[in-house]
Design brief:
The chain has 236 residues and is mostly helical. It has one domain. The chain has nine helices and no strands. Helix 1 packs across helix 2. The longest helix has 44 residues. The N and C termini lie far apart (46 Å).
């Protein structure tokens, strides 16, 4: 599955690279065509997943809204599991919430995300398969001389990966009022960026660049979504 999807995603990266390289007369000094292709392909990828991500965001927000009501039912009927289940189903139906929707959406996304991850980790395998093509490409990006290697000097992209992951986790956690969920979210807000930073130090810098651009896209999407929700609530 990952190999099949990776070939598809790799074809998109190769197509974008070919478009970029043929559209410019000469390659920029600080940013290679390959770096530009990574940025544009990441944006295209996020746009492809946008409907699924928006659905997941709505599902998460709905879950946060009904969480206190679920707690009330669980407390009230803790000694009557059958009635608890009936009341839960009535609650879901009333608020038009499907508890399985979040998991299903995540299951749809994961193979695609893993495939895209594989493409940026091994671009010569999935995208630039012609002999010598990938090796001959310029892969510089600002202070990075080769996106194929980790950003080991300034750790700029690993740091940006961690910071944008932290900001993204903050925006994703807004609206959840459940104390237990909020406590778990706070722990993840700090643990996940540290894990991403440590991992990105050993990843190819091109993969870290993909992660940063992907995070920035998600942050902007989430901020717009949160503001739209607040505007709707204010109008009511």
């Amino acid at each position: 599955m990952i190999g099949f999807l990776g070939n598809i995603m790799g074809s998109i990266l190769k197509l974008v690279y070919s478009f970029v390289s043929s559209s410019f007369g000469s390659e920029p000094a600080q940013i290679s065509f390959y770096a530009i292709a990574i940025i544009l392909t990441t944006i295209i990828f996020k746009l492809m997943l946008l409907p699924i991500n928006l659905q997941q965001t709505r599902s998460t927000k709905k879950m946060g809204e009904i969480q206190p009501l679920m707690k009330e039912i669980q407390t009230k009927y803790k000694n009557d599991p059958q009635t608890m289940q009936v009341k839960m189903q009535e609650l879901y139906k009333k608020h038009k919430y499907n508890p399985a929707s979040g998991c299903l959406i995540l299951l749809v996304q994961l193979p695609i995300i893993f495939a895209f991850f594989a493409v940026f980790r091994e671009p010569a395998t999935y995208a630039f398969t012609e002999p010598g093509l990938y090796e001959s490409m310029a892969k510089n990006f600002l202070w990075i001389t080769d996106l194929e290697n980790p950003d080991i000097y300034l750790w700029g992209l690993p740091l940006l990966s961690a910071v944008t992951t932290y900001i993204q986790s903050l925006t994703m956690g807004q609206g959840n009022k459940d104390p237990q969920a909020m406590a778990t979210q706070r722990i993840m807000n700090y643990m996940l960026p540290v894990m991403i930073f440590m991992a990105a130090r050993s990843f190819p810098a091109g993969l870290a660049l993909y992660w940063v651009v992907s995070n920035i896209f998600t942050i902007v999407q989430q901020v717009i979504s949160n503001r739209s929700t607040l505007s709707i609530k204010g109008a009511k």
